[in-house]
Each structure stands twice: as C-alpha cells, then as structure tokens.
Design a protein that fits this description.
heterodimer, A: mainly alpha, two-stranded antiparallel sheet, B: mainly alpha, two-stranded antiparallel ribbon, 7 helices
C-alpha cells in the first residue's frame, strides 16, 4: 500500500453523501413516488433476512434440477448416474457470501419494483413543495438503504480508503439515530398529509 | 394484570384506530396540543416538582410515598386532561380537505398512534419517574420485564426531551413545526 494517500472520511459525511444522492432523486421524482420506495425499503428491512433463509433451500434444489436437465435429464443414458454426478457439485448458495448476494438480489428486486410501481401508480412531482418533501423522503430512503446494505456488504468492519464502514454501521445501528430517523419520518409524513389536504397537491394552487 | 408494555401497546393501537376513524387533520390538532403540553411540563418539571413537594410535605414517616404519589397524580391528570380536551374539542383541527383512500387511512392511523404514544407514553414516564407511587395500579419498578425496562428509554419525555439543536429539545422544534403548520393551514 506504499505511495497511496490515505483519506479519512467522517461517518456522517458518508451517510450524508449516500443519502444526498437519493435526496436529489427524490427532489426530481416527487414525494408520492418516493413514499413507494420508502414503503418497499421498510418491507425489505422486515422480510429480506427471513425471505432469504426461506428461499435458500428451494433455490439450491432448482439449481440441481437445472444442472440435471442440462446434463440430459431423464432422457440421458443413465439418469441415476447423471443425478449422482450433479448432486456431488456444491450447492449454489452455501457460503455467507452467497447468502449476502441472495439478500442483495432480493433487495434490488424490492427496490426496482418499488421504483416501477411508484412510477406507474403515483403522480409525478407537482410543485416545489412536492419536490422538497420528495427530497426529504429520498434522504430517508438513502439512510434506510445504507442501513440494510452495510451489514450485507461489510459483514465485518472493513477499511476502504481509510473509511471505517464499522463506524458508519455503528452510527446507523445506534438506537438514538434510528429513533431520530423515525421522528423525522413522522414529521415528513405530517407535512405531506398537510400538503395533500390542500389544493396545491393536485396543482390547483 | 397484563404487563405494562402490553397495556401500552394495546392503548397505542386503540388510539391508532381512533385516528383512523377521526381522520388525519383532526388528529393533528390533538398532536399539537399534546406536544405543547409535554413541552410545558418538560420545561416546568423542576419547578412543579419542588412546589408540589412543599405543598404535599407534612413531616410524618409516610411523607416520601405520599409526595411521590401526589406528584405522579398531578402530572398524569394534566396529561389526561389535555388529551380529553383536545379530543373533545374541534378548536385545533387543521383546516383542509379530508383525505380519503389509503393515504387518508394511513395518515390517520399513524397520527392516531403518535397521539397514543405521546399520551400513554407520558403517563408511563411519570409513573416511572416517581417509582410507580400510585399503589392501586399494582406496578413496581423491580417487577418490570426486561422489555418494559428497555422501552422506558423510548418514552416521549426521555426521547423527545433530548437536546436537538442550540441546546433545545426535540419537543420545542416539534411544537414550533406544528404551530407554524397550523398557522399556514
């Protein structure tokens, strides 16, 4: 590592930078569409771990079946021998890294679906207040995504460009920080409700 | 009797259902009153505690228990009265069109739950503050479950009484936000 310059990034800079990108996306998309993403992320926090554990076995079985079919399947000369050969291979999801990849795929699925569903069902941004509320919800989406991603991507604290992912993780998993995010979310929802209850939300003002 | 955390959860759920029926804008009026009352209690607590202590003190052996019970009753009654007045009246309802559909239901449910958390959570906070001095409730600090003990840190005045910015608590900023929103609406 000689000759490399070390960069020390405060964990709050990392959180703000990551969330800021989502905030900008929210500013452009509007609050209604961003709320779909927030809902999907909260759902992902609740079910991704459980879903990944439940899917591990069926995915491995399907993987063996697919390999068996590609090796000739029941039309092979000796299907029993082919099956034995296929079963000797290691399962698709075996290590913690594999499980992390499965969780990431599920998360990407939730996120992609929420962006598409939000785009199809929710009205686009109707004004500057809509955009600003969208930015706030987008920021919360960024924080929520970071909260889910870090334990998957960095199971153990790792230093990358002198950035301590452990510190970021510690900050995000601190109960005070989580509660503060919940309070901010409630405030944003109240502001959104008040905005929706006015004519401006439908572009009347 | 059910554990206090179960009672707390059940009451918050009940408030959430009330919020669902009453609607978001009415519930927000209740939230505003509760946040302002909690801010006032938070700021005046040392003064009130001292004053009540002097009034209730009589010099006998049972003094501490009686003072604690009196102080608990006072704060609990203030919160119950604030909740009752704000639910019974229409005065602080926010103006605007009643929100329908899933959005209206969701916001009503969330705001109702927030009101439940503020009202019931604050009562629990004051019970805990003076060691569950109201005897007939049958609650004792050492008999609380681990879950209940961990929840105490998240009760409204423990949580929202924390400093946020310029040495002021979350409660002050929430009250300002709700008052400004009320004026704008």
């Amino acid at each position: 590592m000689d000759g490399l310059t070390g960069w020390t990034l405060n964990q709050y800079v990392v959180i703000a930078g990551f969330a800021g990108v989502f905030g900008l996306v929210g500013l452009k998309r509007g609050v209604r569409r961003e709320l779909y993403v927030l809902g999907a992320l909260l759902l992902a926090i609740a079910v991704t771990g459980f879903l990944a554990d439940a899917l591990e076995e069926p995915i491995n079985r399907f993987y063996y079946l697919q390999r068996f079919a590609r090796a000739g399947g029941l039309s092979a000369e000796n299907p029993s021998a082919v099956w034995q050969e296929v079963r000797e291979a290691p399962p698709l999801i075996e290590t913690d890294k594999n499980r992390g990849t499965l969780r990431l795929s599920l998360l990407a699925g939730f996120l992609g679906a929420s962006y598409l569903v939000g785009r199809r069902l929710a009205r686009p941004r109707t004004g500057i207040i809509d955009g600003l509320l969208g930015m706030l919800v987008g920021l919360l989406n960024g924080v929520a995504l970071l909260y889910i991603l870090l334990p998957i991507v960095f199971p153990a604290p790792t230093a990358t460009i002198a950035l301590s992912s452990g510190q970021v993780q510690q900050t995000l998993s601190g109960s005070a920080f989580r509660i503060q995010m919940v309070v901010v979310l409630v405030v944003v929802l109240i502001a959104f409700g008040l905005y929706s209850a006015s004519g401006h939300a439908r572009g009347e003002g | 009797m059910a554990p206090i955390e179960v009672l707390f959860g059940a009451l918050v759920l009940m408030f959430a259902l009330i919020g669902l029926v009453r609607g978001f804008l009415r519930e927000l009026g209740v939230t505003t009153v509760l946040v302002i009352v909690l801010l006032a209690l938070h700021l005046l607590e040392p003064l009130l505690e001292q004053g009540l202590g002097r009034i209730l003190a009589s010099g006998d052996a049972l003094q501490t228990a009686r003072v604690q019970a009196g102080q608990t009753w006072f704060f609990v009654l203030v919160i119950v009265s604030a909740a009752f007045i704000s639910y019974a009246g229409e005065t602080l309802s926010f103006r605007g069109e009643r929100l329908g559909g899933a959005l209206g239901m969701g916001l009503g449910l969330i705001t109702g739950a927030v009101n439940g958390y503020l009202a019931v959570g604050s009562i629990w906070y004051y019970l805990d503050r003076w060691d569950y001095a109201i005897g007939f409730l049958g609650l004792r600090a050492d008999a609380l479950s681990e879950k209940a003990q961990s929840l105490i840190a998240y009760l409204p005045l423990n949580l929202l009484g924390q400093t946020l910015f310029l040495g002021q608590s979350w409660l002050l900023y929430l009250a300002l936000f709700l008052l400004i929103a009320r004026v704008i609406r």
